[in-house]
């Protein structure tokens, strides 16, 4: 009796019509399809086991979710370049969200620092138009110039960093800095650790928050320019981390409280 398997003909068994016994003249042809079927079953079982282990591996890699999220954001810039022929976002939704957080956090600073309504409004205008937009324009222009002048692989008119993209990178990097210094820090200024004081624990916690916030800004800025395929040597954007670490150590050694200086500066602004 012959049987077809995967487009090839194998002999499963040769039956002797007279005795009904199996003819063992072709043992390899009899056993080979059985072995192949067994091997295929093992492959299927291994594939199913790998699929079952995959969610566990994803849960184990959860601490890197923030980085994956940022990379996914900058991957969307690639899609926008392919579909709309521009790197910068044309949707103002993120800018609106950032503005809302600026307003809420600035109102929180006004309450914590015992400012009046008019003083809080002045502080809000300063923070939105000077700290966020004004400083952002300067940083974006500087990064736009540096990236196009020194980081391009092959200088060309068709492949360059758009100024709008540089400003988008600044906004992306500014958002976590805003959450840490303008929102999370509010709970520590006059309560809990009281970082607005001369205590060592106070300025240690406050300056550490500044270190984390500025570190986030530098790292997200690096990711933004590293995502562009026509740039090279973007690792130089991580070099300021060395200066940041040195500045942090000096501030702790000298007892310089960044948060206390920020609060004094905000009060001076609105006078």
TrEMBL record:
Keyword hit for Glycoprotein: no
UniProt cross-references to InterPro entries, sorted A to Z: UNC-50 (IPR007881)
Main location: nucleus
Residue span of region Disordered: 45-66
Record localization: Nucleus inner membrane
Biased amino acid composition, Basic residues: 50-62
Topology within the bilayer: Multi-pass membrane protein
A cellular component term, taken from the record's GO annotations: nuclear inner membrane
Chain ranges passing through the membrane: 93-112, 124-146, 173-193, 200-225, 237-259
Record's keyword terms, sorted: Membrane, Transmembrane, Transmembrane helix
Domain of life: Eukaryota
Signal peptide stretch: none
Family classification: Belongs to the unc-50 family.
Cited function: Involved in the cell surface expression of neuronal nicotinic receptors. Binds RNA.
Name by which UniProt lists this protein: Unc-50-like protein
Organism, as annotated: Pleuronectes platessa (European plaice)
